[in-house]
Amino acid sequence: MQKYDRDFYGNVTIDGISYTLEFMIDQIPYIIEYNRNTQDYFFISRSGIYIGHNTKNISNIIPNVVYADYSRIYLFNDIILPWNTQLYMEIFISKFNEETAKLGCVNLGNSSNPFGFLVYNVA
Within a 10 A sphere around the Cβ of 51, how many other Cβ atoms? Predict the structure, then answer.
């Protein structure tokens, strides 16, 4: 990430691209929910929406889902909100990259990840 700015209203500009606070809350992955057996995964926003699926319930995506097969990884907490500071965003990006690499997540540039900055190397 080259440049990060946040205005009085909470809107964030990252490398020249502006995001509203509402968009960040609805679209930044807060949770990675993954199936331990099939390696399927989903990103869930802080507002509880399955990103790219516009629902708050996995059963709307996978009929007859077996909830016991799924685990969750939380990418940040209510104190370190990535849209609050550049440092918090960098911590989030590092954790996102680390966890998605461990899980073998692929196609992160598709509709599940509308943010180009998530694939940045923080180092």
Answer: 20
